[in-house]
């Protein structure tokens, strides 16, 4: 029997805490969520923890499902989290935009923080995920792959903020190394020293241009479920991907050319370490408590927490008058100065936690406002003629009412009604009906896989993207002098 050719593209959402994968049959424009299980599908098992362990004998552990991590009995000398942010920091540090992160301890006198070792560790994680995803496809799609010669390719997501940075080249290089490592006839290395030697050999012979791996803006991929739809309306949109470690926000103009080809022009991209896990970790570091408890407050007890935040905010706003130069922390007009003064006194644990969560709101407001106001500076005309501004929310943190309310209330907290910003219209990303199979996972969890789904779409099928650096800020329109009308005061332009 003749062997046919099957083109499969992996979309790898290399998240701060979890790595998610979708695979796409590009011949029929159909994507599947990779669940990494052979039995009953599970949301938790489809989220591969983005972490790596090094055991005392140098054994490497990564690319495991959550249950596989729980079953591990080997003691680990080093557990490495936030490996994506550590990789990005190599370049962002030089550009003055790095994320706060702890230094990794040495392993057997080896500095894990140097550039080559960080690249190698990320390479190993991604190669493990790629191999695991391919194995899942072979086991769970036997009819699809039978008698087929498969041409594999892959896209990895990179924040828009990195795309105009040298970090983009590093992400693509690491993905290419991971691809070669996963395709080797030899099994993946089990030990750290072996990994270093294998990747050193790969670096000597690699030809990056020949490897079918590409770095794609995450936010562009995240909104593909909307922009590839024929029902998508041209306009300016905002998207916030609320993850475990970060919030990535971007603004973009969606339009179609005369041939009806979709286009996406990005005006701004901001990434901040304000995701659920990162925010809980920061709050926990300010007080003696439980990070798990704070995460639970943010995700499970949001309604109760928001009511308590409102009560304490209104009380402080009434107790402390606002003076020039004060920074407003949230929609209830409590100032950061009032919060900091209150924290200097002996307050109960719950009050202290709430005050830090309000400061968290202030940081989120700042990011949201920066994304929106940058887009306004680049497309003033749209803001002048629009009655609403659509904001899409995605990522695991989208379910948290704390994040929903904080993003929505930025309009009031930052007085955007005085800045000619139209009212926010916060919406969920639409589900891509007809060409995504959630592999048994409920459709309501699509927001967890929106980026991976978009990344599974090959570049040739996706809307053309132009990046923020292509769009300079527009200067404000000059103020036109007012000509006094007859019967008014001619010398002061007043309307008395």
Automatic annotation (TrEMBL):
Record-linked InterPro entries: ATPase_NBD
Domain of life: Bacteria
Region (Disordered) residue spans: 472-496
Protein name per UniProt: Hsp70 family protein
């Amino acid at each position: 029997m003749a062997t046919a050719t099957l083109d499969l593209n992996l979309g790898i959402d290399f998240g701060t805490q979890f790595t998610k994968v979708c695979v796409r049959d590009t011949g029929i424009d159909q994507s599947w969520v990779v669940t990494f299980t052979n039995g009953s599908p599970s949301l938790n098992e489809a989220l591969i923890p983005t972490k790596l362990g090094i055991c005392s004998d140098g054994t490497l552990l990564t690319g495991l499902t959550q249950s596989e991590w729980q079953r591990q009995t080997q003691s680990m000398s080093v557990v490495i989290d936030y490996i994506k942010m550590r990789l990005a920091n190599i370049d962002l540090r030089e550009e003055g935009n790095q994320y706060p992160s702890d230094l990794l301890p040495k392993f057997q006198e080896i500095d894990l923080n140097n550039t080559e070792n960080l690249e190698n560790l990320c390479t190993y994680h991604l190669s493990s995920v790629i191999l695991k995803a391919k194995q899942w496809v072979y086991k769970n799609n036997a009819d699809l792959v039978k008698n087929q010669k498969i041409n594999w390719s892959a896209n990895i997501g990179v924040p828009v903020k990195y795309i105009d940075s040298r970090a983009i080249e590093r992400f693509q290089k690491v993905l290419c190394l991971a691809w070669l490592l996963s395709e080797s006839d030899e099994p993946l290395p089990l030990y750290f020293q072996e990994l270093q030697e294998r990747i050193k050999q790969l670096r000597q012979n690699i030809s990056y241009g020949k490897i079918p791996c590409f770095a794609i803006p995450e936010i562009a991929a995240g909104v593909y479920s909307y922009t590839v739809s024929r029902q998508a309306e041209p306009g300016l949109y905002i998207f916030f991907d609320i993850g475990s470690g970060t919030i990535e926000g971007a603004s973009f103009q969606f339009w179609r050319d005369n041939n009806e080809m979709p286009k996406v022009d990005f005006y701004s991209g901001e990434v901040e370490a304000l995701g659920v896990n990162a925010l809980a970790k920061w709050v926990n570091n300010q007080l003696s408590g439980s990070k798990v408890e704070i995460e639970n407050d943010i995700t499970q007890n949001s309604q109760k927490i928001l009511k308590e935040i409102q009560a304490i905010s209104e009380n402080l706003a009434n107790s402390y008058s606002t003076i020039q130069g004060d920074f407003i922390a949230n929609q209830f007009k409590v100032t950061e100065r009032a919060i900091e003064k209150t924290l200097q006194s002996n307050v109960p644990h719950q009050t202290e936690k709430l005050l830090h969560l309000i400061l968290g709101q202030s940081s989120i407001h700042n990011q949201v406002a920066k994304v929106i106001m940058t887009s306004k500076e680049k497309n003033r005309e749209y803001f002048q003629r629009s009655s609403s501004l659509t904001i899409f929310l995605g990522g695991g943190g989208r379910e948290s009412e704390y994040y929903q309310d904080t993003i929505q209330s930025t309009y009031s907290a930052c007085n955007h009604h005085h800045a000619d910003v139209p009212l926010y219209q916060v919406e969920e990303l639409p589900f891509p009906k007809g060409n995504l199979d959630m592999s048994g996972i409920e459709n309501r969890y699509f927001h967890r896989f929106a980026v991976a789904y978009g990344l599974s779409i090959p570049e040739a099928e996706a809307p053309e993207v132009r990046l923020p650096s292509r769009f300079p800020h527009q200067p404000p329109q000059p103020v036109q002098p007012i000509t006094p009308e007859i019967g008014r005061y001619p010398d002061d332009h007043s309307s008395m």
